[in-house]
Amino acid sequence: MTAPTRNTPDGATGGPPRDGARPLRHCLPLGRWGGVPVYAHWSVFLTVVLVGELLAASAFPAAEPGRSAFAYWLTGTLTAAAFWGTVLAHELAHAVVARHYGLPVRRVTLWALGGLTELDGEPATARADALIALAGPLTSLGLGGVGALVVWSTGGAGLVGAALAWLAGINVLLGLFNLLPGAPLDGGRLLQAVLWGHYRDRARARRTAAAAGRALGFALIALGFLELLAGAAGGIWLALVGWFVMSGAAADVAGARLDRLRGLDAAALMTPARAVLPDWWTVTQVLDELTPDQLAQTVFPLVDFGGAVSGAVSLNDLERVPAARRGDVRVREVVHRARPLVVGEDATPADLVRALQRPGGVAVVIGADGHPVGVITVVELVRAARLAELRGPDAPGGPGGASAGS
């Protein structure tokens, strides 16, 4: 399960949200495999215990009765650990094909619901995108097929046979599930590649694959709840997977919007800073000095005595100060938003998106002299994205992207 990154790590297909998302925290390094750093989130070790217990308590006693509890527990734990080895093989297959097409691989991370393969950049062609996406599911299906062949040829007797049969079945299920046509699954990446080749418009293809992912996630959640109503506790797991798919699809929608801004920089996106406020002024001083034309800004940068950016406030922030206190309260005291991101005029949308995803997030653009020249919020990004879409894929900042040729 894999997805590209742009300057910041993306969630991978089958992993957390994509553009602007941070890598999972609390991960244990597992070394480098073929030069690719591999990590395991703490949730992997929890699932090894849970899956091992499930196998030891029900699946293996039913398949091979009469063994000791220790034998069931040991086989269950080893089988659960081996399953994560097959997940790692799935992810490394993505990495190998991505590197074949010239895409650096930042890292592979295993977590509770699968794995993430973080790529540094976008595939240059639809063919490359499709083959990178296919590599993981085909590896899982291949491992499942080999396991099934071994079980068939040996008769599948004993706990080892039961473990191999379970691993074969779960890998076939994993491969087939990941081929479902909806982002952020590998099947969604494959659908995106096919549509990219058809439309010659990567952003449009990505939006369509994300819409399919949202529909798929909703369907999985609905099926999970139906299973729960029918008394099947496994519906919780299905609903959780559906929620993950919907969340990943929503992140893909955000990524598609970011695609529309390709080629633009902060200078093109910003609202010019017609008013820059000294942070030691009182609210009354600010309100007395502001003019109607300056209210085109949604946010006003604050500077300290040295001229450095110290914060940002909006008109709404100032209005929240009671009228009786406005002559005493300085504007730096009413800042409730996170400290603004300070960027140069050449900053890219990918440089901005993480900061702007936070509630009240704002970026202050500074010129060569270090003085604020503009502000950017989600409002500016959405406005620029809509304009880029109207201009079409061939215009600067349009939603096109790289060639879809093979």
Overall structural class, as computed from helix and strand content, comes to: alpha/beta
Strand line-up across the major sheet: 1-5-4-3-2
Total count of strands: 12
Please outline the major beta sheet.
5 strands, mixed
Low-confidence sequence ranges: 2-22, 398-406
What is the overall pLDDT average?
A: 83
**Count of DSSP-assigned helices:** 12
Strand content: 5-15%
What is the number of domains?
A: 2
Helix content: 40-55%
Helices and strands, in order, run as EEEHHEEHHHHHHEEHEEHEHEEH
Oligomer: single chain
Using the CA coordinates, give the radius of gyration.
26 Å
Shape field: elongated
Characterize the structure shown.
With 406 residues, the chain is an alpha/beta fold. The chain has twelve helices and twelve strands. It has helices at 42-63, 69-100, 126-154, 158-178, 186-199, 202-229, 235-259, 266-269, 283-289, 315-319, 349-356, 378-391, and strands at 2-5, 27-33, 36-41, 105-111, 114-120, 271-272, 277-278, 300-303, 309-313, 341-344, 363-366, 372-376. The strands form three sheets. The protein has a five-stranded mixed β-sheet. The two termini are 22 Å apart.
